[in-house]
Amino acid sequence: MPHPLENRPILRMNGAGNEILVLDLRGLDHVLAPQEARAIAAAPGLRFDQLMALHDPREKGDDAFMRIYNVDGSLSGACGNGARCVAYALARDGKERLRLATDAARIETRREAETVFTVDMGRPRLDWREIPLSREADTRTVALEPPVAGAPTQFSAVSMGNPHAVFFVPDALATPLETLGPKLEHHPLFPQRANISFAQIVARYDILLRVWERGTGATKACGSAACATLVAAARAGFTERRARVRLPGGDLHIEWRDDDHVMMTGPVEFEFETMLSASLFEGVAA
């Protein structure tokens, strides 16, 4: 019996350097298993930061329901760079505006230019229970207890559909991301793990950012982390409610509007389209 993903087209793109795959499963009654996501990631040229699997919409007015996979096969609640890549993929069918749903949020996108899209990431969640943290805290400034050697002693916590811990540091480039990232991701304060951001305030409209994503590791960009960082910086009085966020893969422009929605604008780059081979899934249960 052929595997349901055999000869299914898959698109490779990047959003500000964030490595994204888009797999359109609409019209197919198949939910990607974690081991299938890992098998795709192991294929030559298909290693990803996030894989965006599109399913038939669950509610009227939505264009698709999305499941977002990290490279370890775990699910993510949101991916702003991936949402822009999905918007670009569906714009080829003439859709300039989209409404996409996940288990965590509903995301709206609009095309600004040929390869530039804006994503409405919705409202940030700021209560410690919503993020979640393992204990009560004022999420503007949370003490890192127990401490981690070499890490800052406090952070700001925000959820943009997935949990984010934002550490403000004097020099983001000098921070040992690969060493601290995995330790902080699994810190007992984060029962669902967390995306870890090291943010340097360059000016009131300019932030330098490096991110360790839960389930993936260090990435060139993370859209939800850029949004969470702007919210945390504005709450702390470090920046205005809009700023350029500079990541290793490119710049994102973030605005926390007066209606509490966080808007992200940035580029998308199409790399290639290919077909999934049945050989990828040999020995992998569907």
Provide a descriptive summary of the structure in words.
The chain has an 18-stranded mixed beta sheet that branches. The longest helix has 14 residues, at 223-236. Helices cover 15% and strands 37% of the residues. The mean pLDDT is 95. It is globular, with a radius of gyration of 18 Å. The chain is built from 4 helices and 18 strands. It is of the alpha+beta class. The chain folds into 2 domains: 9-117 and 269-279, Diaminopimelate Epimerase, Chain A, domain 1, CATH 3.10.310; 142-260, Diaminopimelate Epimerase, Chain A, domain 1 (Roll), CATH 3.10.310.10. The chain has helices at residues 34-42, 80-91, 177-185, 223-236; strands at 9-15, 18-24, 50-55, 64-70, 75-76, 97-101, 106-113, 116-120, 142-143, 154-159, 163-168, 195-203, 206-213, 217-219, 242-247, 250-256, 262-267, 269-275. The N and C termini lie close together (11 Å). Strand 4 and strand 5 form a beta hairpin.
